[in-house]
Design goal:
By secondary structure, this protein is α+β, with helices and mostly antiparallel strands. The chain has two domains: about 80 residues, SH3 type barrels (Roll); about 160 residues, Porin (Beta Barrel). The protein contains two helices and 14 strands. The strands form two sheets. An eight-stranded antiparallel barrel has the order 7-8-9-10-11-12-13-14. Strands 4-3-2-1-5-6 form a six-stranded antiparallel beta sheet, with no helix packed on it. The longest helix has 22 residues. The chain is rod-shaped and about 95 Å long. It starts with a helix and ends with a strand. It comes from Runella defluvii. This is Opacity protein-like surface antigen. InterPro entries: Beta-barrel_OMP, OMP/PagP_B-barrel. Keywords: Signal.
């Protein structure tokens, strides 16, 4: 008697499981050969559909050329290979959309040169001593690989100070200028259609000159800089750039300076 009850309980359990499985809705792929595939759609690209069958961990792939339509579990229908006229219309629409996207995107693999001009201008007062500082940093670069830019740069920095306690004992008005010619490398990574983020590393050599009244002193100088930046493209060839730059400058083999500045400017790509 107990065995009979256990047997019927087992049969009843299987029936419940089968009924439950039938009530679970799945996506259905209708193939061009009129066969169907039930499962869960994982990913759809322009030419491929990735899906998984029920109770099967394997991921299958099917070309969209072999699909008539997909009926999703929620009832939504997506058609693929319909009549020839419909296909031609869809293809023309897709081509037009892709062309519009391509024209709006900036692809650095299609560009070869970059010219940029960045500037930092500041004025500050410390203990009644005023300082005006300006740095110009024009650059020209070449994409020798997609997203990888190398080139040459010029950095011209001027400081004009008015300080009654001048370190040279003169009238208290003195100026400094640093000119560096160097090379730089930059890696640019797209964030979206209009925005690229990048990191830059550079070094160079030049001169440092300080002038007070009629006296001038000149020294050799070297500089190293590094920092992140961002470029926002107004169109395919023109972008606005901003860079947070750390620079280390050695002057005359003795004096060393460390600075952090925010540079902004315009980039031209062609």
């Amino acid at each position: 008697m107990k065995k009979t009850i256990a047997f019927y309980s087992f049969i009843f359990g299987l029936a419940i499981l089968q009924l439950h499985a039938q009530t679970i809705k799945t996506d259905v792929i209708y193939r061009t050969d009129n066969s169907t595939i039930s499962g869960t759609i994982l990913e759809i690209t322009d030419d491929m559909v990735r899906y998984r069958k029920p109770n099967d961990a394997t991921i299958y792939r099917l070309s969209t050329k072999d699909i008539q339509k997909i009926v999703y579990a929620n009832g939504e229908v997506e058609n693929y290979n319909l009549q020839a006229s419909t296909i031609q219309g869809k293809q023309k629409k897709d081509i037009s959309q892709k062309a519009d996207i391509k024209n709006s995107q900036t692809n650095t693999s299609a560009l070869k040169w970059m010219i940029s001009g960045a500037m930092d201008l500041s004025h500050f007062v410390v203990d009644k001593a005023s300082t005006t500082q300006m740095t110009l940093n024009p650059k020209v670069g070449y994409f020798f690989k997609p997203n990888i830019l190398v080139g040459a740069s010029i950095s011209v920095k001027t400081d004009k100070d008015a300080d009654s306690s001048s370190p040279w004992g003169g009238s208290g008005v003195w100026s400094e200028s640093t000119r560096i010619v160097g090379a730089f490398g930059r890696y640019m990574q797209p964030l979206n259609e209009k925005t690229y983020v990048w990191g830059e590393l550079g070094f160079g050599f030049g001169s440092y000159k300080v002038t007070e009244d009629d006296e001038s002193y000149s020294f050799s100088a070297s500089q190293f800089h590094i920092g992140p930046g961002v470029s926002f493209f107004l169109n395919k060839h023109v972008a606005i750039e901003a860079m947070l730059r750390y620079s280390h400058t050695g002057i005359g083999g003795q004096l060393k300076t460390n600075e952090v500045g925010l540079f902004s400017g315009i980039q031209i790509f062609f």
